Structures are given as structure tokens and as C-alpha cells.
Amino acid sequence: MLLSRHTRRRDFITLLGGATTWPLAARAQQPAMAFVGLLSGGQLDDRLIDAVRQGLKDGGYIEGRNIAIKYRSADGRFDRLPGLAAELTADRVGVIIALFSPTAAMAAKAATETIPIVFAIGADPVDLGLVLLKEIAPRVAWVGVLRDRAIAAGTGQFGAIEAAAASFGVELSPMGVRDADEIERAITAFARESNRGLIVTASPLAVVHRDLIITLAARHKLAAVYFERFFVAGGSLICYGTNYPDQYRRAAGYVDRILKGEKPADLPVQYPTKYELVINLKTARALGLEVSPTLLPETVPESMLKH
After folding, report:
1. Is 6 contained in some domain?
2. What stretches of the chain adopt beta strand conformation (E)?
3. What are phi and psi of 246, to 5 degrees?
4. Are 92 and 57 contained in the same domain?
5. What pTM value is reported for the model?
6. Looking at per-residue confidence, does 284 or 154 come out higher?
7. Does residue 7 lie within any of the structural domains?
């Protein structure tokens, strides 16, 4: 059984993120048919696409009627992003929406100095991941922190966890990785001792190799915390992080404002306000863990799980 709880935690989480835009130029009038580019570093996620469409619909835009979306996806091959961004620029789209930020956003920014770029960064509250890990698996004494050492965000996320670790009496092992082989070696070596847990920090690398990470955590019986619900739907234990569909629905509202003539530079950065906790009770039972009643939110149908 998969459980989910949506929360609003603005009072105790400070996140870098929200929807914002680059650069300064924007079209003065909304065209009869607006053209928008959508650039994704990973595979196109139907939940995020639907959220973007809903946000545009809220602004009066219907795909195929008064707005056309040109989709470009790198499918996890991030070296393709510059070329895909150049294609959208050549197609003269009015706005580019970047998914899997900031990788896609930076590629788009490098490709154009005139087309506004809308992106959403939902950096997960990683320090709370440690709180949840200790609550659901209190005997965990050593936590591995899997992070992409090729991106600056990996260092920042580890710093947030490190600041909270001492108060919970746990030791940390930073696990900087860049590819599937390094992920497998790092997790396998770390899991040789008992009473160990895992926190997977947010990165495109973790998304691309999520099946491998989930498999390794299950094989070595590691209680693990992730940043997105599809990890838990795939068989992992728990996630706590930004509600991404909500972020991209809100980001689409910025597309509407830009197409109607507002200057991107005048639009403020918005912070995420909606988060979700998701627990896979089937995985918890397999790990011999008892989930505290305080962590039991509304139930999501079992059919959402992979078997």
C-alpha cells in the first residue's frame, strides 16, 4: 500500500526554488497562436506535462487552439540539451519551459539571449529526510548520502543534512557519484555493515538511474528516503519533497503573464508551498519496519504500485 500526505510547510523549510524567468526581453502582445517550447532533461513526465497544460488552461490557453507546445526531451542524455535548446530557439518560440531544472534551464539560457525561460526548481527539504529516516527506522546509526558530484546542488544538499545529523546521533557518509557503475559500487560498499540507511538527494542523475538505486536499496535492505513519489511507486520506502505538478502548474501561469506582455525581470521568484510525504507500506513490511501512526496519511490505491 502506498500512502501520501500533502503538506504546506513554509514555516520551517527554506527552499531555493519556484518559478522565475530569464532574460529581459518579452513579447509585447499575445499572438493569436502562441508558440511555447518545452525542454526536458529526462523523459517527458505525463504528470508534469498535464500540470503545465492545466496552468496554461487556467490562463485561457488550449493546446492546438490558441497555443502550440513544441516538446524536446533529452531522455536522460544531458549532453543533448544544448542541441535541443538550439532547435527551440531556431523555431522562434515565444517562451521556453525548462523541466528537470536547472540543467535544462541553463542549456536554454546558453542558447538564447532574447527568449524568456520559465523554470521551476523544487529543491527538496533534505534535512527533513533525515528526520523521517530516524522516525521510521530508529536503529539506523549511519546514513549514506547519495549525491551527484557533478552538480553544485549535491554539495548544498549534503550540507543541509550534515547540519542536522549531530542532533540525531547519526554518522554520515557522502557518496559522490557520476554514473551507474559508481552508484552500484558506492551503495554496495556502504551496505556491508548493519544499521545503515540511505538518503538520495535530488538530481537528474538519480532520476535517470532510479530503478538501479531502488533495486540496490532493496537488495541490501537499506531504509531509504527519496525526493519524489515515483521512487516510492517503484518500490522504495519513503519520499518527502516538493509537489512538482503544483510547481509546474504555477510556472505555466508565468508563461501566460509573459505572453500577455509582462517583463520577465519584473516577475518574482516564488517558493514552493506544497509538499508531499509518500510511504510504501509493502516495502516497510519487507524491511521489518513499523510505521508510526503519526506518519500515516491518506491512502493511495494499491494499483499505483509497480509489482
Report:
1. no
2. 2-7, 17-22, 34-40, 67-73, 95-99, 117-122, 142-148, 171-177, 196-200, 223-226, 238-242, 275-280, 298-300
3. -65, -40
4. yes
5. 0.63
6. 284
7. no
